[in-house]
């Protein structure tokens, strides 16, 4: 499947004003769908509830997204823009802020358990090749592995990486730990400090003291 | 919920021969259910298919396990006995074999993607408190964290742990990495070597060379 569906305005070649309106509507639907899926889960979350929140009919909603799984994929891509912001280095050449971004994203996730639950469940389900979000997750992991590998490569180039640590491997294990801690944390929030564990992990990979984040 | 349901023979107070027969039947059902859930997933796997494999009616099967989620919980507990075998130290006082057990379990999992997929999906879904397997997974993670913490404590006591590594934290991160790598691996088996990544992780925690496993 293609995860991003172009807004219908593009397909039908409407005028600019109509296109902007379609884009705005589409964004409102994504925000509402995100709230509903986070609260109720993907399977239980209803299209009718999402449509109600944006004062549309279900048929109107399906004009923008052909089905529930297309809507879900669009919600996830929409959220990825937020995820990407966490990885954006604050200044040029400062790879250390990339690591801090990972910790900040973890701290943010600790404040939104519903979203984390949605993400964990979906990513696991989507490992099945027939799942509607399978291709999305394959591409997403390629992208995130590439992004995190680049951070570790930059750290290596500036002498910040512990000798013998391979950037691509460091990326795979950091992402794996990031994901795996979420399941433990969702099951028992008192028992697991996700930020603390990730910080300890990163500290074993680099030569500088990884700062604590709020 | 209680994950383990006592066999019906116990409840009705039948004689010993009948009890043994019930136990044997129960075991056959668990093996069949495990095969079906691994192949078809939990949701798609049908009770009728499981019943067919053990030449019973669906009603007969439901005499042993009141519903699908009870059967699932019993299947998981049954499998945990196998998991526990991997952690069993080969000789007294040899904590290093505990780490090798983790790698062996990872290598075993690499040969059974259907089971890994089932486990990942279920553990993620079961983070929702209302899920029928929620309590099972909460207890399972407590058990596995305790088991792995004991291994790292024993390693610390014999001077095998890197200075500053805290056994309980090492356990949480090792289990987190173990779980998180599975999702990446299921999505792209070529991109992720689960055993290699876990071995690299463990090597950063201990003072000896962690052996490769097959």
TrEMBL record, chains A, B:
PROSITE patterns to which the protein is assigned, alphabetical: HTH_TETR_2
Signal peptide (UniProt feature, chain positions): none
DNA-binding region: 46-65
Alphabetized UniProt keyword annotations: DNA-binding, Repressor, Transcription, Transcription regulation
Keyword Cell inner membrane (UniProt): no
InterPro entries the record matches: BetI_C (IPR039538), Homeodomain-like_sf (IPR009057), HTH-type_TetR-like_transc_reg (IPR050109), HTH_TetR (IPR001647), Tet_transcr_reg_TetR-rel_C_sf (IPR036271)
Chain segments carrying region Disordered: 1-22
Domain HTH tetR-type: 23-83
Protein name: AcrR family transcriptional regulator
Organism: Nocardiopsis terrae
Lineage: Bacteria, Bacillati, Actinomycetota, Actinomycetes, Streptosporangiales
């Amino acid at each position: 499947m293609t995860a991003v569906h172009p807004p219908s305005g593009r397909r039908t070649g409407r005028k600019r004003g109509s296109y902007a309106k379609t884009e705005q509507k589409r964004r409102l639907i994504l925000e509402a769908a995100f709230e509903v899926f986070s609260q109720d889960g993907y399977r239980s979350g209803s299209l009718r509830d999402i449509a109600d929140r944006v004062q549309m009919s279900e048929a109107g909603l399906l004009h923008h997204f052909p089905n529930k799984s297309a809507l879900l994929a669009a919600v996830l891509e929409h959220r990825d823009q937020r995820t990407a912001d966490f990885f954006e280095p604050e200044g040029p050449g400062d790879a250390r802020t990339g690591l801090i971004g990972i910790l900040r994203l973890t701290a943010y996730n600790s404040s939104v358990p519903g979203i984390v639950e949605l993400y964990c469940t979906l990513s696991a389900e989507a490992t099945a090749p027939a799942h509607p979000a399978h291709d999305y997750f394959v591409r997403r992991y390629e992208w995130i592995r590439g992004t995190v590998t680049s951070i570790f490569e930059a750290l290596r180039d500036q002498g910040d990486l512990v000798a013998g640590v391979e950037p691509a491997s460091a990326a795979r294990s950091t992402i794996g730990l990031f994901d795996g801690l979420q399941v433990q944390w969702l099951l028992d929030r008192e028992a697991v400090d996700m930020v603390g564990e990730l910080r300890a992990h990163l500290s074993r990979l680099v030569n500088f003291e990884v700062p604590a984040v709020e």
